[in-house]
Amino acid sequence: MTETDSNAYDVVVLGAGPVGEIVAERTRAAGLSTAVVESELVGGECSYWACMPSKALLRPVIARADARKVPGLSQAVQGPLDTAAVLAHRDDKTSHWQDDGQVDWLDGIGADLYRGQGRISAPRTVTVTGPDGAAHTLTARHAVAVATGSRALLPDLPGLDAVRPWTSREATSAKAAPGRLIVVGGGVVATEMATAWQALGSQVTLLVRGKGLLNRMEPFAGELVQEALTEAGADVRTGTSVKSVTRENGTVVAITDTGDRIEADEILFATGRAPRTDDIGLDTVGLEPGSWLPVDDSLRVEGFDWLYGVGDVNHRALLTHQGKYQARIAGAAIAARAAGDSLTEAGPWGAHAATADHHAVPQVVFADPEAAAVGLSLAEAEQAGHRVRAVDVEFTSVAGAGLYADGYRGRARMIVDLEDEILRGVTFVGPGVGELIHSATVAVAGQVPIGRLWHAVPSYPTVSEVWLRLLEAYRG
């Protein structure tokens, strides 16, 4: 029988991705003893299979696309990308799937790392089964924070396992570009991976069940990205579902709902995410295994005074930057409660409330062109009951855009609340607009009045002059 050792901490964190790391860092900074449990690599999905590798793949794709629109430079970048060099750069950015540096960082902040599968075995108690079978029981005086993230959700298609489909993990870690790639989905992962692999040498067929791409953004965002993908050579089919998939002599064969037969070397399903909460012992405290965790604005799970759900697991915003924001909130809340301090004095904009989750979540889609948005779309604002006006501007009216690239194509929209004269949402689509979105995030999160924005003068000639054009269009 394996002997179980027991250790007591102030805080136990399940998951050592970027969210769990920040919870640990914040609680350690407050003087609390903290243990972190990780079943895979310290650094999590973002470091090895999501943000870092995907953007390493996409950066040369976007840089070449931009350079091809600059006179005097365009002729120098007409050849194909060096796919092997791009993949090698990707490998460097993932530390070759080794987590030594991340482990050193955890050690540097004074958090104890336990490798293995962690399961809640009783209130305030986590049992860790290590790779060698050794067991550790960790008790938490103040909090257990679940930061185990999410995983790719595959559709219920007969025989899919035998096809060995790609998920986001395989798409970002592949060692070579497949000759032909089917991408199923129309969201961020599907769009970004279609963009990357089409440019890296694959013939991409993108199958989208809905009417278009990026359906959580303003409609024009998906339309412009779809146009660019088609121009790049991808076959984009909307209103199309996959009914069956098989692998015949190494070739993937997908049959659509219209009866089309599509052959490829690989197939990527980017059709949603599910919480990684199915094997962490939720049932021992009365919660449903595999469920999303409902939380309040301090990230404490509803009905508990010791359990927190931070990042993807609470389904508020499946974005690394938003999860890290929540981690800062959760860390501050845990520390304040441990010290017996009040969490209500600072109100909704205090350090203990994830207020931005409700109305100021930013996101960038690193396609060609980039799409970036924060806050509510026009449809969402109207559905929420706000009396709003959408103000649209084409980037052709912005001098800086014309200098950025010949034939710059893009569009901007701001959603103005007509009663409060503040912004409810902003969307940009165009080359380089990812660098514009933080200014919009400040305006939306800070509820900056339109009258004040008029005095925030954009530098000339930059792409950010689009702000002036938006304000001019609103004022008439």
UniProtKB/TrEMBL annotation:
Residues annotated as domain FAD/NAD(P)-binding: 9-321
Any one Gene Ontology molecular-function term assigned to this protein's record: oxidoreductase activity
Gene3D superfamilies: 3.30.390.30, FAD/NAD(P)-binding domain (3.50.50.60)
EC number: 1.-.-.-
Cofactor: FAD
Key words of the record: FAD, Flavoprotein, NAD, Oxidoreductase
InterPro entries: Class-I_Pyr_Nuc-Dis_Oxidored, FAD/NAD-bd_sf, FAD/NAD-binding_dom, FAD/NAD-linked_Rdtase_dimer_sf, Pyr_nuc-diS_OxRdtase, Pyr_nucl-diS_OxRdtase_dimer
Protein name: NAD(P)/FAD-dependent oxidoreductase
Organism: Streptomyces broussonetiae
